[in-house]
Amino acid sequence: MNEGVALGLKDRLQEDLKEALRNRDERRKAVIRMALAAIQLAEADRGGELDEASLIAVLQKEVKRRQETIEELRGTPRTDRLADEEAELAILESYLPRMMSREEIAAEARAVIAEVGATGLRDMGTVMQTLMPRVKGRADGRLVNEVVRELLSG
């Protein structure tokens, strides 16, 4: 795929689409085409090319959509559809930066809490305002909120 050259996300998707076409990998081809279509739509809305952070945000939106569908399908007899959604999710996640673990989020949150001098839940807004830009794109906002709430409560 990429021979030591750092490709941008969009270029990587386009190269991987060509590879999926060559390999007749129908699922990967369909997922990458969907991702590229979502990117094109976002670029049309914006009226120009997206930067890497915006490209990642588009893919994160698609990942979130798959996660929500998977949650809805759990406990239903649609195991075939569930497996399809999980496979698509895995393909999309392979294009995103590694997500932070709960422990990594907690470590970053502790640093911010000390930095801003937070002492309780009433300081949560200040902590979140400082922390979120630092973890943007690498941590789920709900998990960050949960971790900060626990740290400030305990």
Q: Can you walk me through this structure?
A:
By secondary structure, the protein is mainly alpha-helical. The chain is 73% helix and 0% strand. It contains seven helices and no strands. The chain has helices spanning 9-23, 26-46, 52-73, 79-93, 102-116, 124-135, 141-153. The longest helix has 22 residues, at 52-73. The protein is globular and about 55 Å long.
Please describe the topology of this protein.
Elements: H1 9-23, H2 26-46, H3 52-73, H4 79-93, H5 102-116, H6 124-135, H7 141-153
Helix pairs in contact: 1-2, 2-3, 2-4, 3-4, 5-6, 5-7, 6-7
Taking the sheet with the most strands, its summary is: none
Shape: globular
Uncertain segments: 1-5
Mean pLDDT: 90
What percent of residues are in strands?
Answer: under 5%
Give the structural class: mainly alpha
Euclidean distance between termini CA atoms: 48 Å
Tell me the number of helical segments per DSSP (H or I, 4 or more residues long): 7
| C-alpha Rg (nearest Å) | 19 Å
SSE order, one letter for each helix or strand: HHHHHHH
Count every beta strand, where a strand is a DSSP E run of 2 or more residues: 0
The level of helicity is: over 70%
